[in-house]
């Protein structure tokens, strides 16, 4: 089961778990006869940042980052994903700090740059000799990157670009690494050549020298204390006529010749902009996947606690009841467990299509990574919150991780694209496919919409348990929802346009259907990845458990999305049958709960005292006098 | 409007706001030409605790706590509530630390004690000469207080009680004030007299001397770093044959004579136990109300930000759109605004029935405070999360409060009774009323269930806008839901009993209906308090806005609770009409958003930089060099 969920690079993962557990830098603490490792969060921001750097140095030394930028092919990318996931399971700050350097800075050099940049920067970046950051967001522009205000012009006399921050809202903001450690940055900026606005481009600029002194014409300030991720030094940058060599333009998409002539194979600035951002999908891939691992940690802790913690007895002189034996407690945790398993498969699928990407699959990857980034990070926040409450007061102790991770992971729902904005983009893309298919009067092809070419699924009026647990019914009802919502969305938007609204505004007004549709797309695809994973397993007990998990995933989605009742995909009788089946599945999954969280493959040291003997861990003898 | 929402003691509130703004102890910081006050959360737990104590000493000196325990009557209680609310708006740690001392320790002396305790302790407690804590929870028992394991016996030879912690799970846990500062504690313990188990009783024990040294036979340990509230020193306590004078039993309900004879006016241990806990309702009252103020702060910040922050333009060269002009952004924030106003009235109602309590109203107060504590704190967490995301990255900065408050307030959903457990108690109480009414074949009387004596409301098949906005329809549909759910719940529980389940277990199995019913009760009562508040206002623009808010509160509750569709209280056509009306109401409330958050009466200094000129607040000139 672990193989199915982790998917790849098991030995690499275990090796890195071991490296961290061995070192004092990862703050091992004894409790209840076990060792747990976790950062000391009772530290100031400054101390946490320093610890992050020390941990990076240790991992660098051990060769963890070897091949992260110079490695070639899908295998190297999968190893990097696996190791990065393991790092995130220890501390999100550490993962984000490394993500900015290797995925954003390094990825920008790889994907936006050409040979001259690769030769000059990749090796030193991999060796952390130079420390990169990624200056895209500004105070005034986050999700709307196209609206950034930083301006770069070209001086043909010296062959240099000149970068400026023209106003306070153009200051670069939230730039991870900028406040303390980064030596270089990617700068996203409007490029103006001889009075022509060529749109957003990316440049390399140095911001600190090797001794850590800020470079001339650069100003840097700290973003200050955050609700989490205080191990990352987010900063702000102002550019005052900063001059950089012409070669520092990352020129994979467009270039400027020494005489100032602007060249690009892509004429349309919108398409050029899209081409610029496409390779950054890796950021969303890692965010989505790390959200699943965070959910796994919290569920492993909360479920283990619920198997040792008791509360209230049903009759006098009877033992108190284990938390997980309460049907209500099962209902709180086991659907989240099933969803997390489903999303684990979805994450593996996303990584797979990403590393096997082709120019043709870019659009699909963009849409799927947007949908999964939003869906998986929202799911994670909800799981963390439920697990924290399910652990009661113990969930509030930092050492028990569950509650604390909420602060560390909260940022995921808005960084690298606000989740709501991403989901709107998903629906927009689906609508685009819809309109294109109608226009060319051809079947749907792409984004998994092929099911719309079939006849509309019919949901039986009487749902038996075996129908409810069948993959056929589950697929049908998910496809029905997606199909109908897409039709409704298309109709509503076109009606609004017919009433005189612009297409843009019509879309904005139809946000509720857009949200519903985005969810329908995401859920349908997750179910599909689940079925694909299930198909690789041969008949036996594990396949049976997978079937239960998949049914729970599907049915809880039916239960939770009011669209099924609202739009009549399910009758109230059907909805009652679904609810009853969910309760039944809770009981059926209950005996497997411990085995399932064990199959997450998280070493005990990465869980917390309440996951094991929490009475002993809290005993007087464990108090350090 | 502010008068209606704050309800009482406006001058006292303003005076205390002023006291805090004036003092350096409250960490004033300049940003964007304004001063903001907020604790420095980039401090270790130890530093935060020290600052809490300094702030208490300052407020004590200024007379803030005068009359908090020696004052008499409803007026003194309302003043205490008002000042405590204002303190919580600055920092939840400060409010909780004071709450433990004045409401829990002080309240226990007042309510569980008799004249001898009042004379001895209340004056010194009010003057903070002694510092009290409240040792109820144990490692092994939180919500289930009746199951605590601490044991107290009586030694007639010396006239002393002897308190013991018999095992590790009996250690007192989460005791606010115990780790560093408290000199005395209330100890909840099983009382065994001559081998007779008399159930849980409360005693006074000293744990530190005036110099802060731990007393003999007491052991204390720290609970450690928490995800929030680090300004409160939560600790653990073990008792090893701790001897206290017989007079230290808080004897309002039961007493032990010098010879060891046990006396109580209440023979049934269960009823005795209930009588013990009843007066502690004040804790739940303050939690519920403080949750509303937290929601107000976050909405004031998020809505003000959404009125200055722009993102994306609808057409080239058009200015970007203000966030609050997006229908989707209105839909995120304005329903929460309406709910928060509604819950503000609910909070005032709760305070009012509490300070006017009589022995007859105790049950009602217990049920209402349980329902509102759960509903208002859940609402607060949801509001904070939505506001944090609505503020994008700025919501992650600690200085902007919204994101940080999540960690500080999270504990509210599980402390002083887990919300789920409380809501089950609400439904249990409703079921009790139901069964009693059926048994005595008399009309319903109490807990607001009188509406069940009327004929069942009928919902029109076509809902017009004016019907949807009418208080009649809103009341009808809320009553219909409560009535039907209570019927269903009673039937389901009795069916399960008929199938051989114990009453207790039948109840546990019917948790979903219990949850739905608890929500229905809570919503119906909140709507009622809204209507009562509205009735005090004479016709005019303010009454119109109140009407919009009330309709939004009612309709968003219809939209969000799937029970309306699931059980057919609304047809799908009706549900579509509700959804449309919510969107319409968003547009109608949009022009009033700023006025509404201003009417919360929160001084600017208690908001944050993004609520005002956030560009200026982030300018280079504001950076401290």
UniProtKB/TrEMBL annotation, chains A, B:
Alphabetical list of Pfam families matching this protein: ACOX, ACOX_C_alpha1, Acyl-CoA_dh_M
Ranges where the Acyl-CoA oxidase C-terminal domain occurs: 477-607
All residue ranges annotated as the Acyl-CoA oxidase C-alpha1 domain in the record: 280-431
Alphabetical UniProt keywords: FAD, Fatty acid metabolism, Flavoprotein, Lipid metabolism, Oxidoreductase, Peroxisome
Primary site of residence: other
Positions annotated as active site in the UniProt record: 416
Domain Acyl-CoA oxidase/dehydrogenase middle: 133-242
Binding annotation for FAD: 176
Cofactor: FAD
Reactions accelerated catalytically: a 2,3-saturated acyl-CoA + O2 = a (2E)-enoyl-CoA + H2O2
The keyword Oxidoreductase is assigned to this record: yes
GO biological process per UniProt: fatty acid beta-oxidation using acyl-CoA oxidase; lipid homeostasis
Stored InterPro entries: ACOX_C_alpha1, Acyl-CoA_Oxase/DH_mid-dom, Acyl-CoA_Oxase/DH_mid-dom_sf, Acyl-CoA_oxidase, Acyl-CoA_oxidase_C, AcylCo_DH-like_C, AcylCoA_DH/oxidase_NM_dom_sf
CC annotations in GO: peroxisome
Family the entry assigns: Belongs to the acyl-CoA oxidase family.
Protein name: Acyl-coenzyme A oxidase
Species classification: Eukaryota, Viridiplantae, Streptophyta, Embryophyta, Tracheophyta
């Amino acid at each position: 089961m672990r193989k199915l969920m982790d998917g790849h690079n098991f030995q690499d993962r275990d090796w890195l778990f071991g490296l961290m557990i061995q070192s004092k830098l990862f703050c091992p603490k004894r409790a209840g006869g076990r060792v747990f490792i976790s950062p000391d969060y009772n530290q100031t921001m400054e101390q946490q940042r320093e610890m992050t750097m020390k941990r990076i140095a240790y991992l660098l030394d051990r060769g963890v980052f070897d091949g992260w930028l110079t490695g070639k092919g899908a295998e190297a990318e999968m190893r990097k994903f696996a190791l990065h996931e393991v790092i995130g399971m220890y501390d999100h700050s550490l993962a984000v700090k490394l993500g900015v350097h290797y995925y954003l800075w390094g990825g920008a050099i790889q994907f936006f740059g050409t040979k001259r940049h690769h030769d000059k920067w990749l090796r030193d970046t991999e060796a952390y000799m130079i420390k990169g950051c990624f200056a895209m967001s500004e105070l005034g522009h986050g999700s709307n990157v196209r609206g950034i205000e930083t301006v770069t012009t070209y001086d043909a006399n010296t062959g240099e670009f000149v970068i400026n921050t023209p106003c306070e809202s153009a200051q670069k903001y939230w730039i991870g690494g900028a406040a303390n450690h980064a030596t270089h940055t990617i700068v996203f900026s409007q490029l103006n050549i001889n009075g022509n606005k060529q749109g957003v481009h990316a440049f390399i600029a140095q911001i600190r020298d090797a001794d850590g002194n800020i470079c001339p014409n650069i100003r840097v300030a700290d973003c200050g204390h955050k609700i989490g991720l205080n191990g990352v030094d987010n900063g702000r940058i102002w550019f005052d006529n900063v001059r950089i060599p012409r070669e520092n333009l990352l020129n994979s998409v467009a270039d400027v010749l020494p005489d100032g002539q602007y060249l690009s194979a892509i004429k349309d600035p919108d398409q050029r902009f899209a081409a610029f951002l496409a390779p950054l999908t890796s950021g969303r891939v890692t965010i989505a996947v790390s959200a699943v691992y965070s959910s796994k940690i919290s569920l492993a802790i909360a479920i283990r606690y619920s198997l040792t913690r008791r509360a209230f007895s049903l009759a006098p002189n009877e033992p108190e009841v284990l938390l997980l034996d309460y049907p209500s407690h099962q209902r709180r945790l086991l659907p989240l467990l099933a969803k997390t398993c489903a999303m684990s498969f979805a994450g593996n699928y996303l990584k797979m299509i990403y590393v096997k990407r082709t120019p043709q699959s870019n659009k699909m990857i963009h849409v799927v990574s947007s949908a999964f980034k939003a869906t998986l990070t929202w799911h994670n926040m909800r799981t963390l919150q439920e697990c924290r409450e399910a652990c009661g007061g113990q969930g509030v102790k930092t050492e028990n991780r569950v509650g604390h991770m909420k602060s560390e992971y909260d940022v995921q729902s808005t960084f690298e694209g606000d989740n709501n904005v991403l989901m709107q983009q998903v629906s927009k893309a689906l609508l685009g496919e819809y309109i294109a298919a109608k226009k060319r009067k051809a079947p749907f092809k792409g984004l998994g919409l092929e099911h719309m070419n079939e006849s509309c699924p019919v949901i039986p009026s009487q749902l038996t348990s075996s129908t409810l647990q069948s993959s056929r019914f589950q697929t049908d009802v998910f496809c029905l929802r997606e199909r109908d919502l897409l039709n409704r969305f298309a109709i509503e938007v076109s009606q609004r346009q017919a009433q005189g609204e612009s297409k843009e505004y019509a879309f904005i007004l139809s946000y509720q259907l857009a949200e519903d549709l985005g969810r329908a797309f995401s859920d349908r695809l997750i179910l599909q990845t689940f079925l694909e994973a299930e198909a690789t397993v041969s008949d036996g007990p594990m396949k049976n458990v997978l079937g239960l998990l998949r049914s729970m995933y599907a049915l809880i989605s039916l239960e939770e999305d009011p669209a099924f009742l609202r739009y009549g995909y399910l009758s109230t009788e059907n909805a009652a049958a679904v609810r009853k089946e969910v309760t039944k599945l809770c009981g059926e999954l209950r005996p497997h709960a411990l085995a399932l969280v064990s199959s997450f493959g998280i070493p005990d040291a990465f869980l917390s005292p309440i996951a094991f003997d929490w009475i002993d861990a809290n005993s007087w003898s464990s108090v350090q006098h």
